[in-house]
Automatic annotation (TrEMBL), chains A, B:
This is Aspartokinase. The keyword Kinase applies. Belongs to the aspartokinase family. It is an enzyme of class 2 (transferase).
Length: 424, 424
C-alpha cells in the first residue's frame, strides 16, 4: 500500500464525462489499497472564460480580486470530482487550497508556497477517504485571502503536497504519454523516456519542454519527490523523474542524452556600440533586471580596437521585450550605447543529458550535426549537462530533427503519440 | 452619513454590463458619504448551470460537495463586482461568507445562520472601502466547511449582516418596484405599498408573496432591521418594511389591508373515513411530520354519527405530496382510515392587514366579494391579521381580483410596473 498524489490538468476534467473517467481511475487506485490524494485544475477553458469576464469589466482588475475570481474554477472541478468518486461507492471529500493547508506569500497571481500543513488531508486519508485538493491556489495567512500560484501552479501544488505528506509518488496526469526526447510534433519518431533525473528535467523545463514547469521540478528535487508523468487517456507507464537508483533487477537505460528541447518564446536584444570599459555590461544588466526582466543567454562581441566600442546581445522572454527596451532607452544617456536592435524571430535549441559530463565528443557531434544541416548558429551557451544554441526561428525545426538523429534518439518502433500543451 | 447594506440578486448581476450598472449605483451611495456593504447573489443562471453539471455527474451528490460547488457562483460575482467598483475609482474588497464571519449550523444546503462576526467587514469600512459579501453562504465552524443557506439565502445574509453591523437600512434590490397589494401579473392595477409592518410582511411572505422569503423577514423583525425593497432598474423609492413610526411630518397611509397574496404551490390531502375517536388526528399529523412535511391548513369534517367516521383534509407544499402520501399509506393499518385523496389543483388566497384586528366587518366584506364573484370556498383559516381560503386553482385569479377590488386596493393611477420572480 502506497500514498499516491495524483494531479489531473484542465483537459483531463474538461466536462462531466471526463470527470467521470478520472473518478474511475482514482477509485481504482483507492480500491487497489492505496491512500490517494488528488489535485485538480479548473475544467477545460474555465480559467480563460473567467479572465475574459474580468476583462469585460476592467482592463486592470485588482490582483486580489482576480485571484478570488480564478479560484472559483478549481472549486467547481474539485467538488464535481468528489461527487463522481462518491458515486462509484468510494468516499471522497474536496478541499480548497486553504483547507488543505497550502500557505503562500502574498504575491497575488504568482504566489510562492511557503508551507504546507495538510492536517485535514491526513485526517481524511486516515478515515479511508480520498482527498481532492484544488490546485493552483493557496492562502496568504496574514490576511486570510486566497492567492493563486501562477503558471504550472497545480503541478506545484501536487508536488508540495506529496513532499509534505511524504507520498511515495506524485503522478502528474497530462495529455501526453510522458517526457519525450523531443517534441513529437516536430520529431514524429521521438522516444518516450522511462526515467530522467531531476537535473535533466530541470534543464529540459528551463529549455522549453512544456510537460512540467521549472518550479515544480525544483520543488520535487529539493524534497526528493518522485514524479511520474503519464497520460490520463491510457494506462501506459509514463516517465519517472527521480534520482533514486533503479530497483534491483530493473533494467534502466542510462543514455548519454535525455533529449532535445526547443523554445520559440524568446527574443534577442542587441545593444550596439557600447563603450568597452569595465562596468558597462553590468550597468546594462542592472537596468534590465530593474525592469523585472530575466535574461537568459548573453554574448559580448570582441571589441573593435580602433573604436573602443563593442556590441552586447542577450535573450529574454519575448513578452518582456517592450519592458526591457523601454528601460534601456531611458538609460541610454548614462550607459552611452549607440542603438538597440530587437529580434523576436529567433529559436533556441538545447541538448540535455547528464551523460555529457563524462562523455567527451558530445559538443563536436552536436555542432557537426547542425553544420551538416546548414543551420546558422547565432549564440551559444552551455552548462554541465546542456548545450544551447540560438538559430533563426524558421530553421529551428530542422535543427531539432538533425540533432535528434545525430544522437541516435530516433525511435525504431511506431509509438502512438499524443502531444499537446499542458494545463496550468 | 448612514451605514447601508445593499443586496443585489442574480438578475441584477446577470452579465458584465449589469455588474457595471450595479457598480455605478454602489459607487454613488459611497460618494454620497455612506458606508456601503453589498451582498451579491450568483450571476443570472450560474447556480442552475452548476446544479445541472452536478446532475450530469450523479443524481445524488453529497450535500457537502454540492455546497462547495454552488458557492463558486457568488465567488465569481462578488470579485467581478469589486473589480467594477474599483474601476470607478472607489476602493472595494470582496469577501466570502466565511471571511465575512457568517457562521452557520452544519445543515448543508439549508444552513441557518447562528452568528455573524463581521470584523473584516468593519475593518474594510473603517478603511473607507466598500465591502462586497457573497450571499447565500456561510461556514460551519466545527469543520470549517462552507455551507449554503437555501432559498432566499442572499436576502437573509444581507439582513443578518445589517443586524450585526447595526446598519441604518438593508436595501433589497430586485426586479420589482417594491411590495404590491397583489401580484401585478394578476391584478394589473395593484398598488405599491410605501410601508408595511413586519407582521404583515411575514403573513404576505408566508401566504405566497415572493418578493421576500419568510426567514429573511423573521430575522429583520427579531433584530429590528428596516428593509427597503426596491428596484435595481429604477431610482424609485420602494417599500419600507419596518415597525418604526413614520418621521414627523411624513404622511403615511395606514390602510386596513396591506394586500392580497396568493399561492399555487400547495396541494390538499384528504384522509377519508377516519375513526372519530380521540388521538386519530394527532396520529395522522405525527406521521406526516415524521416524513419532514410541514402542514398548512387543516379542516376536519363533522362526523357522521351513524358511521363514527370522519374525513380530515389538510394542505401542504405540493413538492412534499409524494412523501406525505407514502408515509400515510405505510401507517394506514394503525391509523385505520379508508382511503386517501390527493388534489394539487387548488389555490390559496390570503387577505392580510394589521388593521383588520380593530375593524369589524372585514370577513363579511371578504366572503361577500368571493360569493358575488361565484368562487367556491373549500377551506378557511384565519390569524389575527390574515384570512386565507382555498379555492379551485383555476378560479384563483378571479378570486384575487374580486377581493382586491372589494377592499378598494385598486390603483387609480397608471403605475408602470415590472414584476417577476426574485433570485435566491
Amino acid at each position: 500500500m502506497a500514498l499516491i498524489v495524483q494531479k489531473y490538468g484542465g483537459s483531463s476534467v474538461a466536462d462531466a464525462a471526463s470527470i467521470k473517467r478520472v473518478a474511475k481511475r482514482v477509485a481504482e487506485a483507492k480500491r487497489a489499497g492505496h491512500d490517494v490524494v488528488v489535485v485538480v485544475s479548473a475544467m477545460g477553458d474555465t480559467t480563460d472564460e473567467l479572465i475574459d469576464l474580468a476583462q469585460q469589466i476592467t482592463p486592470m482588475p485588482p490582483q486580489r480580486e482576480m485571484d478570488i475570481l480564478l479560484t472559483a474554477g478549481e472549486r467547481i472541478s474539485m467538488s464535481l470530482l468528489a461527487m463522481a468518486i462518491h458515486n462509484l461507492g468510494v468516499d471522497a471529500k474536496s478541499f480548497t487550497g486553504q483547507q488543505a493547508g497550502v500557505i503562500t506569500d502574498e504575491s497575488y497571481g504568482k504566489a510562492r508556497i511557503i508551507d504546507v500543513t495538510p492536517s485535514r488531508i491526513r485526517q481524511t486519508l486516515a478515515q479511508g477517504s480520498v482527498a481532492i485538493v484544488a490546485g493552483f491556489q493557496g492562502v496568504n495567512p496574514t490576511t486570510n485571502d486566497v492567492t493563486t500560484l501562477g503558471r504550472g501552479g497545480s503541478d506545484t501544488t501536487a508536488v508540495a503536497l506529496a513532499a509534505s505528506l511524504k507520498a511515495d509518488v506524485c503522478e502528474i496526469y497530462t495529455d501526453v504519454d510522458g517526457v519525450f526526447t523531443a517534441d513529437p510534433r516536430i520529431v514524429p519518431n521521438a522516444r518516450k523516456l522511462d526515467r530522467v533525473s531531476y537535473d535533466e528535467m530541470l534543464e529540459l523545463a528551463a529549455s522549453g519542454a512544456k510537460v512540467l514547469v521549472l518550479r515544480c521540478v525544483e520543488y520535487a528535487r529539493r524534497y526528493g519527490v518522485p514524479i511520474h508523468v503519464r497520460s490520463s487517456f491510457t494506462t501506459h507507464t509514463g516517465t519517472l523523474v527521480t534520482d533514486q537508483p533503479a530497483a534491483e533487477g530493473e533494467i534502466v537505460e542510462q543514455p548519454i542524452i535525455a533529449g532535445v528541447a526547443h523554445d520559440r518564446s524568446e527574443a534577442k536584444i542587441t545593444v550596439v556600440g557600447v563603450p568597452d570599459v569595465p562596468g558597462k555590461a553590468a550597468r546594462i544588466f542592472q537596468v534590465v533586471a530593474g525592469a523585472g526582466v530575466n535574461i537568459d543567454m548573453i554574448v559580448q562581441n570582441v571589441s573593435v580596437a580602433a573604436t573602443g566600442l563593442t556590441d552586447i546581445s542577450f535573450t529574454l522572454p519575448a513578452t518582456d521585450g517592450a519592458a526591457a527596451t523601454a528601460a534601456l532607452t531611458e538609460h541610454q544617456p548614462d550607459i552611452g550605447f549607440a542603438s538597440l536592435q530587437y529580434d523576436d524571430t529567433i529559436g533556441k535549441l538545447s541538448l540535455i543529458g547528464a551523460g555529457m559530463k563524462s562523455h567527451p565528443g558530445v559538443s563536436a557531434r552536436f555542432f557537426a550535426a547542425l553544420s551538416e544541416a546548414g543551420i546558422n548558429i547565432e549564440m551559444i551557451s552551455t552548462s554541465e549537462i546542456r548545450i544551447s544554441v540560438v538559430t533563426r526561428a524558421d530553421s529551428l525545426d530542422d535543427a531539432v530533427r538533425a540533432v535528434h538523429t545525430a544522437f541516435d534518439l530516433d525511435s525504431t518502433e511506431d509509438e502512438a503519440v499524443v502531444y499537446g500543451g499542458t494545463g496550468r
